[in-house]
């Protein structure tokens, strides 16, 4: 779900070409849906779509880290992960701001647009999970990216439920409740990533001084 604290551990053996290709497919899908949900969230007025976009942004960054990981030392991987965590905190804050603004204005989002984009997002995550399914029993990095894609589908289902709730009740509350829960999860995930990355950065710094 939002804020999946995906591992950025680097496997000892090199990535297979198939895994690299799978990561590229997942990256393109996630970046595309991130942009779609940000624009769709603005058009429909849905805070839940913005919250789900947080998932796609976090995963896109994770896939980029996985693709370039082989050429990065622990120190620079930790710095990149710190950036990812900070971006997740920033985006979670924006989503919470959107929830507060929407609640104050009281205008229900456009449920049909929400639902259509939710279906698109769910499809993208299912494709990502299927593409990465082969590597689910691989090293920690391979496993983490598959688990994230699988778990993100839950967030997409939550958006669809919010869209149904808005459509059925003509109330803004289903959208705001889902958005707030996903933003809190994103905030929690961002903090976890920052904590782990900071520890790795200190560990790397210690190794430098030891040498």
UniProtKB/TrEMBL annotation:
Localisation per UniProt entry: Membrane
A Gene Ontology molecular function term of the record: zinc ion transmembrane transporter activity
InterPro entries: Cation_efflux_TM (IPR058533), Cation_efflux_TMD_sf (IPR027469), CDF/SLC30A (IPR050681)
GO cellular component annotations of the record: plasma membrane
Membrane disposition: Multi-pass membrane protein
Keyword Nucleus in annotation: no
Keywords of this entry: Ion transport, Membrane, Transmembrane, Transmembrane helix, Transport, Zinc, Zinc transport
Residues annotated as transmembrane: 21-40, 60-78, 85-105, 111-133, 153-170, 176-194
Main location: membrane
UniProt name for this protein: Cation efflux protein transmembrane domain-containing protein
Domain Cation efflux protein transmembrane per the UniProt entry, residue ranges: 23-197
Database matches in Pfam families: Cation_efflux (PF01545)
């Amino acid at each position: 779900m939002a804020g999946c604290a995906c591992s950025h551990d680097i496997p000892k053996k090199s990535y297979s070409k198939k895994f690299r290709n799978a990561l590229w497919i997942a990256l393109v899908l996630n970046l595309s849906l991130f942009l779609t949900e940000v624009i769709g969230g603005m058009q429909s007025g849905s805070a839940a779509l913005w919250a789900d976009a947080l998932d796609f942004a976090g995963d896109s960054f994770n896939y980029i880290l996985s693709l370039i990981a082989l050429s990065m030392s622990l120190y620079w991987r930790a710095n990149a992960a710190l950036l990812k965590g900070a971006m997740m905190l920033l985006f979670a804050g924006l989503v919470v701001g959107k929830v507060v603004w929407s609640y104050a204005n009281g205008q229900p989002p456009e449920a049909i647009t929400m639902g259509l984009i939710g279906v698109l997002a769910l499809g993208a995550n299912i494709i990502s999970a299927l593409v990465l399914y082969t590597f689910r029993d691989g090293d920690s990095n391979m496993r983490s990216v598959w688990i994230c894609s699988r778990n993100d589908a839950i967030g997409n289902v939550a958006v669809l439920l919010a869209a149904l709730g808005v459509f059925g009740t003509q109330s803004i509350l289903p959208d705001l409740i889902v958005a707030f829960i996903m933003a809190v999860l994103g905030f929690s995930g961002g903090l976890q990533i920052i904590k782990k990355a900071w520890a790795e950065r200190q560990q790397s710094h210690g190794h430098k001084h030891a040498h």
